Structure formats: C-alpha cells, structure tokens
C-alpha cells in the first residue's frame, strides 16, 4: 500500500486520535505540534453518542471513567451569591447513560499515551509551507527541516495553519458567532467540592467549578462581542478586553479575574465555526475543528474530533492506494454528522448568554421557581434532547 507516510499537524484530540487509528491500519503517522509539550489543563468536555463507540474501540473507556470530573451538581447564583436553582451534574450537563465528562487535558494525555511509543512526535515545531506535487507533499517546518510525506492532515484547530496554507485565508471559512470565551485555572477560594456556580448578567456569563482530583478550580467567561478579529495569540490584549468587559460586575467576578494573570493555561478566543465545501485538496485534508469546528457552545467539539479522526483513518485504509477515494469517503460519511452538530452552537449560546435585563430577570425568576416544579429533570432532559440526537447522527463502520 502506498500513501503510508502521513504528517498530522496538531497533537490535540483529533490529531492524536488520528495517529492512533492510522497506526492501527498500517500507516506511518508523524505528528507535529507547535507547543513544546502536550497541552495540559483545559475545560471539562463531554464524550457522548458515537464518540463513546470510538473511545471504547480504543480500549480507554475504563481509564476515562477513572479520570472523570465527578461534578456532583450546579447552581445558578445572583449578584449576592444566593443560589437560585440547583440540579445534578449530569442533568445540568445534558448527560445520560454512558456519557462521560472529563477534562480535555486528561483525555488528551490518555490518548497520547496509546501512541507515544510508536508514533513520531515533533513538539515545539510547526508547518511553514506545503508543496503538493501530486506524488507527495514537501513540507518545510519552522525549525528549518524539510521532509516529504505521502499525505498531510491538518488537525490544528480553529486557526489552522494547514488550512490557510492549502485552502486559503481563515476569513473565507471561519464564521464568528458574535461571542468570546475565556477559560483558565483559579484558586478554589469558594471551597467548591465538585460543584459549578454560574452567574448571568446582560451580555455576560461567568462560572466557576471544581472537579475531582483538582485542588484548584476553573473559571469560564462567555460574553457577547463585536470584535471577532482579535489576535488569538495576544494574551495581554485579551486580558484587557476581558477585564474591561466585566468591569463593575458583582458576585465573585473581581476575584476570578485576579487569577488570570498567573494562570498557566489561560485560553481566550472567539466563538466561531468553520464551514467548508470540501475538507480535502490534493494530498492535504482537514479533520476536527480545522474542518468543521462547531464551537464550544455546541458541546460537541471533542466528539466531532474523535469521530472524524476514526472515520478519516478508516476510509483511507479502506481506499488502499487511492487517497482521493479515501478523502471522498470520509467527507461523505462525516458531512451530515458535522452539520447536525454545528447547528447546535448558535442556539445554545443564545441560552448561555442573555442579551437584555428583561431576559436575565425572566430566566432568574423561572430558575428560582423551578425547585417547586415537579419533573424538573424531565424538563432539562427535553431541553438537552437535540444534543443527544446530534451526537448519534452517524453510524460508525467497522473498518
């Protein structure tokens, strides 16, 4: 079989999962990652629907359950810190059955350890240029090294360098949803024990939570924005924007913001989606957020990465020497699944960030009354039904 050497750009969930399945199918993957080491920390993510099948086939479901966040519940609070409504963690997170919640960094580590001894990883480096001559792809790295691979796959996220080099500028494919998100570690000054607290004001939402095996906490900020073009690597500018947006807010906002200066895992970006007519061009393809980012608001980014990597590797293996057939099979199998999950993002974020004082007042009033209503768990399950349906919108083949 030709086309066996594959360069994967990005050692996140999609990239590491793709490396695992390509290796299982007899390919020789190499992973290049801009960061100097595997990225740690990150927010809590859910694995549900078809993605559960992928991690089960990888044999890591038991380890994922051992590393679960074990968040017991969540409460919505007002500016004075009064808890207006509370519910169980699984109900609040829309999980059911075998669904699993885990920190992104923990999942990434588990998957990386499956491949660390048999896949070449090039950390602290990235792709500088690509030249597809039809028989292979000549890759120049930022380090100065030049190598040729049969295929190249961009698994390098929303701001994919691979996509920009092979398909064109980011502005052609990335659609801003009108919001920003920031997440970072903070001291657990509230003494939370596997619990989440959420505060809502017009155009701004903030929350903090603690998880099992973590003595600290995480803070998350979601807010409406009119500045989609911020430099996603300019930390100082991002922190000034975040501080200015939440200036004057009550509750625990000032103390949470105080923690961001020293946070080793500070993350800030626009809430955006990627929409493309094609996910491959010649010998270059895209997977995960680089191809069909649904945004964190969808709750399905990790599941899309896991499923997409599994399908791409399987279709390439099934196509043998014909990489174009492999890429085509991957797009045909994944397109509907990606589109159904992308539909979740815009609707979800409108419920997470309320635009007016009237909307905030009404939601807080309803939440304060919810504890008196029978069947509130069934009500939440109905609200979360679309995400469960989208999570199962593909039938995985046995490659």
Automatic annotation (TrEMBL):
InterPro entries: FAD-bd, FAD/NAD-bd_sf, FAD_aromatic-hydroxylase. It comes from the Bacteria. Pfam families: FAD_binding_3. Residues 4-340 form the FAD-binding domain. It comes from Streptosporangium album. SUPFAM superfamilies: FAD/NAD(P)-binding domain. This is 2-polyprenyl-6-methoxyphenol hydroxylase-like FAD-dependent oxidoreductase. One of its GO terms (molecular function) is FAD binding.
